[in-house]
């Protein structure tokens, strides 16, 4: 394999497999998980979980100076019949069940939101069409909380589409009942000034299947924290991600799969393309196999394609194994560069320059785009990739 | 009949903040159906000639002309040269992540031929060409040159030569790094293309070994950026026996 060959200047890939009695995933955080923002010190930037993030561009989400503007974020939910959509207060018992904030901004969001949205698919209900949640920023600062809960054996596809101009910190909980199947596509197609920081907490029930597709194109700074835990044996989680990081953008995806239950599976695959000066992509892939999680089967992968000089990738897969009684565990990370030699090679076979770039980038993303399974979203993504490439060439 | 004409070609390259002249007046005419071997010691500029003809941006043409059937090749972009009928089999083909061999071959055939080949005949054409070069069918689904061995890369280059059917093929040290079996397979591929009589071949090599499989019509000795002697196949025998010493000494004192 061409693992980690052609690493461009300004890119790092590092990986580790730890076999330890004590979790370093937990100890690497500067404070234990908490719903209260006061339990987290204001980050100064050298902490393990903040060292890649440009704090000065967080617009005050990290230090308490960002204040909700009351309006400025519009959320519309379009749900097929049989689905319950509610707006609830802070005391609703269903909030925070899937996970606890692990960093200061997630805790700030939990401490600051006023109303939460809860979408419920009743047990055994199989939806034929997706639930669509449109989150549109209109220039304000907002703190959000979203819960999506599927009853036992329910099946649903949820598309969460972020557009517009916003400064948003949020927690999103996915609760899957036994045998439920949930696919969530979260698209970050923000305007260029937006800042979006969110923690996604999935709690995967016994024999349930969770598939997350995270697609990040827009925004000035996007930092997402998809996390998975299992509530019973036989659960499966697939976490897919695509990002296209442009000039000046910071896009950070920090994943954790916590194999806290025996006989569960996880598969993580994130791919990103970068172009332009100071485009910065960060990918942290933590997989923890706890001592009790015998029979775990996990694999995680991150690939980056650097299209121009001046872009930077930090890719850190991290696998911690506390039991040897597992089916499989692996990780891979590679950052490759689409360079002048590749361009020359393709053009020397008669292929025009813009076709050569398109060929490489489309090929790179194709296997993940096909995983989405929602036709209009797949088409939109392909169009979006083309658009990004046109902007770069032109 | 297609003719590649190189006249008084001078080429420089930027290195260590200085400009270095690598080619110092190359004259050569390659006609369709002919095979020219260019032989010379390392550093004589053979590969520079190959890459300059293909249009690699690293090299600057400072004077001279290159025409293909009277058309100015130096005015063309890299892809235009390929579509005009020039083909360069590279010494070090690069990896192209995310692009499968089958997608790559079809895209380039479409570009060169000006229309997409009909799918059914295309699949058969590729399959047969791969079989002739002893390339495993699973190759089609692999990414271009990714994880290929040295021999696999060279066979893949010759596969493209067979499929793209250029007017002039430049083979840049296609023999280097090949064992005898791979050399034979690759040479047979080149010979199949030559036997059509449709292609002019410029075979660039350091060693005489490949000339036992591919018989040149002309042999040129390259030294210090120009052709210093030309002859028939017998010149290769002389090089085999005497090496390049006579030429490198001459080059140094010139």
TrEMBL record, chain A:
Q: Which domain of life is it from?
A: Bacteria
- Taxonomic placement: Bacteria, Bacillati, Actinomycetota, Actinomycetes, Kitasatosporales
Tell me the ranges covered by the SUF system FeS cluster assembly SufBD core domain, including all copies.
137-364
Name of the featured protein: Fe-S cluster assembly protein SufD
Which family is this sequence assigned to?
A: Belongs to the iron-sulfur cluster assembly SufBD family.
Species this chain originates from: Streptomyces himalayensis subsp. himalayensis
Biological process according to GO: iron-sulfur cluster assembly
Q: Which SUPFAM superfamilies match?
A: Stabilizer of iron transporter SufD
Automatic annotation (TrEMBL), chain B:
Start and end residues of each ABC transporter domain: 4-249
Output the Gene Ontology terms for molecular function. Answer: ATP binding; ATP hydrolysis activity
Alphabetical list of CDD domains matching this protein: ABC_FeS_Assembly
For this protein, the record's SUPFAM superfamilies field holds: P-loop containing nucleoside triphosphate hydrolases (SSF52540)
Q: Which UniProt keywords apply?
A: ATP-binding, Nucleotide-binding
Q: Which Gene3D superfamilies does the record cross-reference, listed alphabetically?
A: P-loop containing nucleotide triphosphate hydrolases
InterPro entries hit by this protein: AAA+_ATPase, ABC_transporter-like_ATP-bd, FeS-cluster_ATPase_SufC, P-loop_NTPase
SMART domains xref list: AAA
Q: Which family does it belong to?
A: Belongs to the ABC transporter superfamily. Ycf16 family.
Can you say what this protein is called?
A: Fe-S cluster assembly ATPase SufC
Q: Which organism is it from?
A: Streptomyces himalayensis subsp. himalayensis
């Amino acid at each position: 394999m061409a693992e980690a060959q052609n690493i461009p200047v300004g890119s790092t890939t590092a990986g580790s497999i730890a076999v330890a009695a004590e979790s370093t995933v937990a100890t690497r955080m500067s404070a234990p998980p908490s719903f209260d923002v006061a339990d987290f010190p204001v980050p100064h930037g050298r902490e393990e979980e903040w060292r890649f993030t440009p704090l000065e561009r967080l617009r005050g989400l990290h230090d308490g100076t960002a204040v909700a503007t009351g309006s400025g974020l519009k959320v519309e939910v379009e749900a097929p019949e049989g689905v319950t959509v509610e707006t609830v207060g802070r005391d609703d018992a269903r909030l925070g069940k899937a996970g606890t904030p692990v960093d200061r901004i997630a805790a700030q969001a939990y401490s600051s939101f006023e109303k939460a949205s809860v979408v419920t698919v009743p047990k055994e209900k199989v939806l034929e069409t997706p639930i669509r949640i449109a989150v549109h920023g209109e220039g304000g600062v907002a703190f959000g909380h979203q819960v999506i809960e599927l009853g036992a054996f329910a099946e649903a596809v949820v598309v969460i589409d972020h557009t517009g101009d916003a400064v948003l910190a949020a927690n999103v909980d996915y609760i899957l009942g036994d045998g439920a199947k949930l696919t969530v596509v979260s698209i970050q197609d923000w305007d260029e000034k937006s800042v979006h920081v969110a923690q996604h907490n999935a709690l995967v029930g016994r024999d349930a299947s969770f598939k997350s597709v995270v697609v990040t194109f827009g925004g000035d700074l996007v930092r997402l924290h998809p996390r998975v835990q299992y509530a019973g044996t036989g659960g499966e989680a697939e976490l897919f991600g695509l990002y296209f990081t442009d000039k000046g953008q910071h896009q950070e995806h920090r994943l954790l799969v916590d194999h806290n239950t025996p006989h569960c599976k996880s598969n993580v695959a994130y791919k990103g393309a970068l172009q332009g000066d100071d485009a910065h992509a960060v990918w942290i892939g933590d997989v923890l196999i706890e001592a009790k999680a015998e029979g775990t089967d996990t694999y995680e992968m991150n690939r980056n394609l650097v299209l121009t000089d001046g872009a930077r990738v930090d890719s850190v897969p991290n696998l911690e194994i506390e039991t040897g009684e597992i089916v499989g565990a692996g990780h891979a990370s590679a950052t490759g560069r689409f360079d002048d030699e590749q361009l020359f090679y393709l053009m020397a076979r008669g292929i025009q320059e813009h076709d050569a770039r398109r060929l490489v980038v489309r090929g790179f993303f194709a296997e993940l785009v096909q995983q989405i399974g929602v036709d209009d979203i797949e088409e939109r993504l392909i169009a979006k990739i083309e658009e990004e490439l046109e902007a770069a060439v032109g | 009949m297609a003719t590649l004409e190189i006249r008084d070609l001078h080429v420089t390259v930027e290195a260590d903040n200085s400009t270095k002249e690598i080619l110092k007046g190359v004259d050569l005419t390659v006609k369709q159906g002919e095979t020219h071997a260019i032989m010379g010691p390392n550093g004589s500029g053979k590969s520079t000639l190959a890459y300059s003809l293909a249009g690699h941006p690293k090299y600057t043409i400072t004077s001279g002309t290159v025409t293909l059937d009277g058309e100015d090749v130096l005015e063309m972009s890299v892809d235009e040269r390929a579509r005009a009928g020039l083909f360069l089999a590279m010494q070090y083909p690069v990896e192209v992540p995310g692009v499968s061999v089958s997608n790559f071959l079809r895209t380039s055939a479409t570009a060169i031929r000006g229309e997409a080949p009909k799918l059914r005949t295309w699949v058969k054409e590729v399959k047969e060409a791969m079989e002739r070069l002893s390339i495993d069918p699973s190759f089609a689904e692999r990414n271009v040159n990714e994880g290929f061995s040295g021999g696999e890369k060279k066979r893949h280059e010759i596969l493209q030569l067979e499929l793209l059917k250029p007017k002039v093929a430049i083979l840049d040290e296609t023999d280097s790094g090949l064992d005898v079996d791979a050399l034979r397979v690759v040479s047979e591929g080149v010979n199949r293309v030559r036997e059509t009589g449709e292609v002019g071949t410029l075979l660039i090599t350091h060693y005489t070994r490949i000339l036992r499989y591919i018989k040149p019509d002309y042999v040129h000795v390259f030294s210090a950026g120009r052709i210093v002697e030309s002859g028939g196949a017998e010149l290769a025998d002389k090089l085999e026996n005497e090496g390049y010493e006579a030429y490198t000494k001459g080059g140094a004192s010139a």
